[in-house]
Amino acid sequence: MGIADYGGGQAPSSDVLVVTTNDVPGYRVRQVIGEVFGLTVRSRHLGSQIGAGLKSMIGGELKGLTKTLVETRNQAMERLTEQARARGANAVLMFRFDVTEAADVGTEVCAYGTAVVIEPADTV
Question: Which is nearest to 29 in space by CA: 88, 116, 90, 95?
């Protein structure tokens, strides 16, 4: 099984494997490159803020905000993989997201992990 065949949660066409675990079964870490991250801050537009306010009064999913957060997380993850690739990594271990409010104007999403070079464990 090659890295591209491993079902690790990133886009199938990605050449950088991203996992939340400390290792990848069947692979060994040949080189630790270091921390990588992808950061983005998004603000909500006025229409979604009004809709979210009304929806919060009656309950239910805030679909517009959910869509925005998914897009934001995807952008942060793309930036993380771009940084890992640029530094010569073929994998990111211990991948995590951190989400915070940015001064009441938007949401900051940071994707982070450890960039590494991995190879099949049976390679000498």
Answer: 116
Q: How does pLDDT run along the chain (124 residues), one tens digit per residue?
A: 344 444 444 444 479 999 999 999 999 999 999 999 999 988 765 455 555 555 566 667 777 777 878 888 999 999 999 999 999 999 999 999 998 887 777 788 999 999 999 999 986 5
Backbone region of residue 26 per phi and psi (left: phi > 0; alpha: psi in -120 to 50; beta: other values) = left
Q: Report the predicted TM-score, pTM, of the whole model to 2 decimal places.
A: 0.74
Q: Which of 37, 41, 30, 24 is nearest to 93 (CA)?
A: 24
CATH of the domain at 98: 3.30.110.70
Percent helix, strand, coil in the chain, to 5, is 30, 35, 30
Domain count, the chain: 1
Range of the domain at 53: 3-120
